[in-house]
Amino acid sequence: MRHDAIVVGGGPGGYVAAIRMGQLGLKVGLVEEGALGGVCLNWGCVPTKALYSATRLVAQASRAAGAGIEFGAPAIDLLRLAAWKEGIVSRLAGGIVSLLKQNGVTLFPARGTLAGPGRVVLATGETLESERVVLATGSSPVEIPGFPFSHSRVWSSDDALALREVPARLLVVGAGVVGLELATIYRRLGSEVAVVEMMGDVLPGLDLDARTLALVRRAQGTLGIALHLNAAAESFEETSSGLAVRLRSGERLEAERVLVAVGRRPNSSGIGLETAGISPDRRGFVPVDLCLKTTAPGVWAIGDLVPGPMLAHKASAEGVRVAGSFAGEDVPLDYEAIPQAVFTDPEVASVGLSEARAKEKGHETVVGRFPYAALGKALGMGETEGFFQVVGEKGTGRLLGVQIVGAEASDLISEAALAVQSRLTLSQIADAVHPHPTLPEGLKEAAENALGRAIHTVNR
């Protein structure tokens, strides 16, 4: 069966690419062997953030006592919580099915394997042909030696999000985004949580400044999450109450369950890359050029399959870009303007360059900050932990990067992302009137601080 384009993988990169191609008038086939929406919708971003929001109520209830409003101890019904979470996933998945139909995309619910440029063979025996094939097969959790996911007490992130139980003691291996987000959720649910990280700090790999990371570390302690940095989990032995995990230092940590969250690897094996002469790099990523073309003619790759941050919105943006290129549109992506959000407590969000990275790239910088504790809205919310930071280029005043640590940081970063992408200046942000009292005022105030004209904080 011939199509104008074939997309292999129905995650946030693949289904978005297929819908956009359909909007552009192409005859598109979307191949997906599992659940539409991929990891993000079914076992990642969406269920994690749903549980983060639900359990945040527990934290907010405890803070309400300071305002004279008290609640009893929370009663958590795991079955109802899991069903509520699955209801959200199901509703969104149904929406994708509807959108595919409305945009003329044909769905093939089967495993698809590349059989040379322009050919995709389905597990059903059917062969699809097209001059354009887009690979969007996503990624999977990384397993580490000595901690197989096949063991009943060793969890992947998928297992943790299934909400089968709340262990009395949970050991998380990996202090990256996934590890800290799930540690936060389970701590709020009542688990005693410890996090082991082989690197020297939390959130390794993210371009965050030391001040931001220090606040995240302190906040973990406030939540009651024990951090073990520069520590590697090497093995475990079963005990009467669960597992005893041995660290490289010789220390032993007891836990009922161990959650391994050390990262993800691209799903590049077993999809037929060799039939088209495509060779992944040593980490499994598929090399692509600036237009996301692979080394094989007529084959593109997007999302977690290619180098770059493993973010759903990055995959979607790449999907839209590839679709547009098929219709003669070529709008390059500015990867430095892609924001990142981490749902810890407090939240962490960033876009553009950190102060340290900006200096490494040769920029002479000017930095401004503004604390949540000086925002009337934050005080009223009982959410005073955190700050806004802006990094500008000295001389031109161009905004290079923003970091926000605090309540609603994941929402607040969008204004900053638009500003960085549009190459706005600190003055343009500072001069824009923001409503009062709100949290977004913090970005304006930080820009004013960088310019030396702050009103509500001391100028640096």
Would you give the CATH topology of the largest domain?
FAD/NAD(P)-binding domain
> With helices defined by DSSP (H or I, 4 residues minimum), what is the helix count?
13
- Could you tell me the radius of gyration in angstroms? 23 Å
Number of domains: 3
Task: State the total count of DSSP E strands.
Answer: 23
CATH class of the largest domain reads Alpha Beta
Q: Which percent band covers the strand fraction?
A: 15-25%
Query: How are the strands of the largest sheet arranged?
Result: 3-2-1-7-18
Helix share, percent: 25-40%
- How many angstroms does the end-to-end distance come to? 66 Å
The CATH architecture of the largest domain: 3-Layer(bba) Sandwich
Full CATH superfamily name of the largest domain: FAD/NAD(P)-binding domain
What is the overall silhouette?
A: globular
Mean pLDDT over the full residue set: 96
Low-confidence spans: pLDDT under 50, at least 5 residues? none
Biggest sheet details:
5 strands, parallel
Class by alpha and beta content: alpha/beta
Supply database-style keywords.
globular, 5-stranded parallel beta sheet, single chain, alpha/beta, 460 residues, Enolase-like, domain 1, FAD/NAD(P)-binding domain
Describe the protein's topology.
Elements: E1 5-8, H1 14-23, E2 28-31, H2 38-43, H3 45-63, H4 78-102, E3 105-108, E4 112-114, E5 119-122, E6 127-129, E7 133-135, E8 139-141, E9 154-155, H5 157-161, E10 169-173, H6 177-189, E11 192-197, H7 210-223, E12 226-229, E13 233-239, E14 242-247, E15 252-255, E16 257-260, E17 264-266, E18 299-301, H8 312-326, E19 340-342, E20 348-352, H9 355-360, E21 365-371, H10 376-381, E22 387-393, E23 399-405, H11 409-421, H12 426-431, H13 441-450
Parallel strand pairs: 1-2, 1-7, 2-3, 7-18, 9-16, 10-11, 10-16, 11-12
Antiparallel strand pairs: 4-5, 5-6, 8-17, 13-14, 14-15, 19-20, 20-23, 21-22, 22-23
Helix pairs in contact: 1-8, 3-4, 3-6
